[in-house]
């Protein structure tokens, strides 16, 4: 197959492009080299594949890039929590408007197969159960509770304790940040496109992806990169809240493998399907920081309380649907992945945190 990977010089995009090429496919990449994720120079791994430098939202660029293409893997996006609401136009332009332009140009070119990079952030808080009220949707955590060290969500009916559960793909979407809202919009745009042109879309909801080629030293980076940068500077990784917030850390090589399966396997039932791409072995954020500190022979993590803006407490999913529909099962264990991450090559970005 001839496959275009948007964002193909980025973190997940480049791993996916390499995995596709290793599987014998012809890979084309398109990347705008946004400063939030890329350094001033072009990374050497970008040169492996035919590369177009340009914006996904540029219709003229897309018309040329899509020529002769059989399928598209749409990885290009502005990612992360962002700094504050002033980021909203940047997120909407790069994620939603650009996706709409891509879908329009795919339709014009007669390309009907799309794999969309979505995210766990579409769920907001994860899934919780109350002993008395069953499955409930906790309210947004209050600033005064977080300041007082009360981090666990409460039952909205009785204010009692709740227990986290794995969140299923059919859970109500509840974005808690501008970035999350743009990922929900991308899914809706892609689903509408699939219905209108008889296309097929796999929306892969990645969980906490880590591994080589992550951008570092940027406010848009994930916690894995932030912890790694601190330890590389002989500083303790700073863990918000009490470190007991739960996530599923999935290695980028497994995410790339999931993309390959979605691009080359059977189409999704009904033309559109969203699936969680995760390892199936949840860990706390404190676990990740501590394991990485040990691997890097660095100082122990420092638990600092508070919370990142728009952060949620527990967000864990099961890969069962991805296994059933895509044949996906993560192969990189937490221990092996974090040990390798201690020395993985990362990408110094042009935009650094203050």
What topology does this entry show?
Elements: E1 2-6, H1 11-22, E2 26-31, E3 50-53, H2 59-65, E4 71-74, H3 88-109, E5 113-119, E6 127-130, E7 134-136, H4 143-147, E8 163-165, H5 178-197, E9 200-206, E10 208-210, H6 223-232, E11 238-240, E12 246-247, E13 249-251, H7 252-264, E14 272-277, E15 283-284, H8 285-295, E16 302-305, H9 320-326, H10 334-341
Parallel strand pairs: 1-2, 1-4, 2-3, 4-5, 5-9, 9-14, 10-13, 11-16
Antiparallel strand pairs: 6-7, 6-8, 12-15
Helix pairs in contact: 1-7, 3-5, 6-8, 8-10
Structural notes for this entry:
The chain is 32% helix and 19% strand. The protein has helices at 11-22, 59-65, 88-109, 143-147, 178-197, 223-232, 252-264, 285-295, 320-326, 334-341, and strands at 2-6, 26-31, 50-53, 71-74, 113-119, 127-130, 134-136, 163-165, 200-206, 208-210, 238-240, 246-247, 249-251, 272-277, 283-284, 302-305. The relative contact order is 0.16. The protein has 354 residues and is an alpha/beta fold. Helix 6 packs parallel to helix 8. The strands form 5 sheets. It has a 7-stranded parallel sheet with strand order 3-2-1-4-5-9-14, sandwiched between helices. A 3-stranded antiparallel sheet has the order 7-6-8, with no helix packed on it. The protein contains 10 helices and 16 strands.
């Amino acid at each position: 197959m001839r496959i275009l990977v948007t964002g193909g010089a980025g973190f997940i995009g480049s791993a996916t492009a390499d995995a596709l090429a290793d599987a014998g496919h012809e890979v084309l990449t398109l990347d705008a080299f946004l400063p939030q994720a890329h350094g001033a120079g072009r990374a050497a791994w970008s040169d492996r594949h035919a590369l177009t430098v340009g914006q996904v939202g540029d219709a003229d660029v897309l018309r040329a890039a899509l020529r002769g293409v059989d399928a598209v893997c749409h990885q290009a996006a502005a990612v992360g929590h962002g700094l504050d609401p002033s980021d909203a136009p940047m997120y909407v332009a790069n994620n939603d408007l650009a996706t709409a332009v891509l879908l329009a140009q795919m339709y014009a070119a007669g390309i009907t197969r799309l794999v969309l990079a979505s995210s766990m952030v579409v769920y907001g808080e994860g899934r919780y159960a109350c002993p008395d009220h069953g499955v409930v949707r906790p309210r947004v955590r209050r600033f005064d509770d977080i300041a007082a060290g009360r981090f666990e969500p409460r039952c909205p009916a009785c204010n009692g304790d709740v227990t986290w559960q794995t969140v299923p793909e059919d859970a109500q979407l509840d974005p808690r940040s501008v970035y999350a809202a743009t990922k929900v919009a991308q899914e809706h745009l892609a689903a509408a496109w699939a219905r209108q042109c008889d296309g097929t879309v796999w929306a892969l909801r990645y969980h906490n992806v880590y591994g080589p080629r992550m951008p570092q030293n940027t406010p848009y980076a994930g916690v894995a990169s932030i912890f790694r940068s601190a330890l590389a500077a002989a500083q303790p990784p700073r863990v918000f809240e009490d470190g007991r917030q739960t996530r599923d850390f999935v290695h980028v090589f497994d995410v790339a493998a999931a993309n390959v399966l979605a691009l080359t396997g059977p189409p999704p039932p009904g033309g559109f399907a969203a699936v969680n791409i995760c390892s199936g072995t949840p860990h706390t954020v404190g676990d990740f920081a501590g394991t990485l500190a040990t691997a890097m022979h660095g100082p122990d993590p420092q638990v600092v309380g508070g919370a990142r803006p728009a952060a949620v407490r527990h967000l864990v999913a099961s890969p069962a649907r991805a296994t059933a529909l895509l044949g996906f099962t993560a192969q990189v264990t937490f221990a092996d992945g974090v040990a390798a991450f201690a020395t993985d090559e990362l990408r110094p970005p042009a935009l650094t945190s203050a």
